[in-house]
Amino acid sequence: MKIIQMCRVEKLIMKYIFVIICAVVFHDDLGVNSQKFFPNLPVGDFRIEYKAFIRCQIKTNNDIRLNLYLSKKSANTTEIRGNVTIGKPIDDSWTANAIFAIKDSIGGWKDNAHIFKFEKACTTIKNFLGKEWKLALNSFGAENTNCPLLPGVYVGKGKYELTNFISNSNFPKIFFYGTYKVRFFLTDKNNIEHGCGSVVVEVKRPWETD
Ligand SMILES: *[C@@H]1O[C@H](CO)[C@@H](O)[C@H](O)[C@H]1NC(C)=O
Ligand SMILES: *[C@@H]1O[C@H](CO)[C@@H](O)[C@H](O)[C@H]1NC(C)=O
User: Fold this and answer.
1) How far is ligand 2, taken at its centre, from the CA of residue 160, in Å?
2) Is 133 exposed, middle or buried (0-12, 13-18, 19+ CB in 10 A)?
3) What is the pLDDT along the chain (210 residues), one digit of tens a residue?
4) Which among 65, 79, 150, 196 could bridge 85 via Cys, Cβ 3.0 to 4.6 Å?
5) What does the alpha-carbon distance between residue 65 and residue 70 come to, in Å, rounded to a whole number?
6) Which H or E run includes 210?
7) Ligand 2: which atom is nearest the Cα of residue 155?
8) How far is the CA of 40 from the centre of ligand 2 (A)?
9) What pTM was computed for the model?
């Protein structure tokens, strides 16, 4: 019930996200299998612990490469470092996808816990990231922060911190607790995947420590 209320109170800009989360809840009401994904549906304020960035490569093309890794500077400060190669402009003909797998109680990954799809990738991600968009692009040496993202090799200067990512961006401020592996990739207008990576994060209660 709490979750359904959350759908109503959140800002419209989050509709992409909340369509998905609400759908999960409605499924639950209908008794459809969502028990598998969310044994207790614990949800609420959270903080995130960034655990790892996992690189991957798409078999059919190599035009967008995320050579990234995480560097932990202190208990609550994690930086993204590395570099990103963009071989063709990323404009609004692309779709960005993020597929969340959640770790279950015996340590396996259950796929498709949440699926976020952002049509008009460049503009939507830009709006979704809010202040983080410019911070991220500038710290990877991109001066142009308008859409489309231009081809180039962007090298991290070791200054991009994730500390305020959630508060600066339009990510939901309430979320389901758990350990997630989030696989993200772009799809072009022919639905072909380009550029991918995964991050492993723990979504914890604000007061929870390791
Ligand atoms: C890191 O955590 C400490 C202790 O919880 C807190 O005092 C500090 O403000 C945090 N730093 C940042 C950048 O959030
Ligand atoms: C990008 O990262 C890869 C992998 O770490 C590295 O081999 C390459 O030299 C980097 N390229 C630039 C331009 O920094």
Assistant:
1) 17
2) middle
3) 233 333 333 333 444 444 444 444 433 333 333 333 444 557 788 999 999 999 998 888 999 999 999 999 887 789 999 999 999 999 999 999 888 898 988 989 988 777 778 889 999 899 889 999 999 999 999 999 999 999 999 999 878 999 999 999 888 888 888 999 999 999 999 999 999 999 999 999 988 876
4) 65
5) 16
6) none
7) 14
8) 43
9) 0.79
